[in-house]
Amino acid sequence: MLALVAGVAVWWQQEHAYYEPVAFVPGQEIRLMPIAGDTPEVIVAENVSGIDADSSPLRFRACFTTPLSQAMLTETYRLYDKPTPLVGPSWFSCYDAGEITRALESGTALAFLSEHLPEYGIDRVVAVLPDGRAFAWHQMNECGSAHYEERALPDGCPPPPAKGKN
């Protein structure tokens, strides 16, 4: 019986605890990094819904639609190398990491850098399907992976924060 209670508690913490709806600023919900420049630009995003948690910078997930074509997006914004959609809670049903991964692997979806987040080595990534459905998540980049695994940083990484800080 104790194992069952513990199992339910662990499941509840992974699926429900900590998550809160994201309060997006209307007209500024989703941004992408332009090919020329280092300041993310707002894109047209509709029906935006998202979740996040203070317990980890990697818990952010969002779903939305955009009328912008993949062709226009690739001519204007930076593609993201090695996108890896992270699994979200099952109750946030608009976001399916398996579907997004399959679409990225087949080339149906394209992934873009949204922005580098204040937490060291974490990026916001956006994937867009041809039908305009789109998804966003936070992902550790190569600098973050090397830093947190205490490996040498790849060339071009900014200096990491002092020990004890993000």
UniProtKB/TrEMBL annotation:
Q: Name one Pfam family in it.
A: DUF6446
Task: Tell me the superkingdom of the source.
Answer: Bacteria
Q: Which InterPro entries match?
A: DUF6446 (IPR045616)
| Name of this chain's protein | Histidine kinase
Q: Which organism is it from?
A: Fuscovulum blasticum DSM 2131
Q: Which GO terms describe its molecular function?
A: kinase activity
Identify the keywords attached in UniProt to this record, alphabetized.
Kinase, Transferase
